[in-house]
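Give me structure tokens for this 308-residue protein.
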Amino acid sequence: MIDTLIKRILELNNPSVVGLDPRLDFIPEFIKQEAYGSYGQTLKGASDAYLRFNKAIIDQIADIVPAVKPQIAMYEQFGYEGIKAYLDTIEYAKSKGLIVIGDIKRSDIASTAEAYSHGHIGRVKVEEHSYCVYKEDFITLNPYLGVDSIEPYMNDCQKYNKGLFILVKTSNPNGGQIQDLSTDGKRIYEVIGSLVSEWGQASIGSYGFSQVGAVVGATYKKQCLELRTLMPHTFFLVPGYGAQGAGAKDIADCFNKNGLGAIVNSSRGIIAAYKKDKYASKYSEKEFHYAARQAAEDMKKDINSVIQ
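Here you go.
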């Protein structure tokens, strides 16, 4: 799957991913009113608003970005109806040719990890039958429980041609409380980075990158360079660009000399672009999806300016 992602990045000349992390205050009033008109101000109404919003965004970006990254928590909060919107969003994105990175950040061991893995990137057995449930192409994982929390996913990656992005150095301000601690002369994020690199050695594809990738935050420029050097065969999923404060110059070191090695995420900077002064003067609320497309094109240009 990592080769598929890289091929699509090269085809579109665009190493960016749009985070589909909707919130009700991101969604234009007319979409909410349409959804509430059908289902009321209920969990189903909110979930339907999410799906309508996502589909409009997807329609405008599917030909210019290689992937989308829905954050499952935004949907889970609405229970069954939210999960259905998550599933339907994935289904719709894949129907438009987009690669889907499920931002689920799971962490558990043994049969529990296997259950997560089978549901999200493998297949679930029901007696003699098996089913592909969530249908993500990649998922994010938390490695805090060690390799036995990762191995079940690696097995399904190999079996079903899927991929992982494992948290190494996150973009949030307080991640360093744990990730920057020293042990035997190394920072925790360096130890995790070395482990992730080791875990991926058996699954390196034709572009030189493993199916086992890493989440590396753009908000820590120095660490980006350290980890790129430490993990030459690991593909990075890079959050923190845009709304979290990082710019193109901050993410440049996540890429190798050939301009490969990373895909950069922006969520609200794209999907809520119509609310930003830069785009509000040109696009109305009903044109939110066109603002999202323009923001995605601007992001592509910005990133390419530092890696090409």
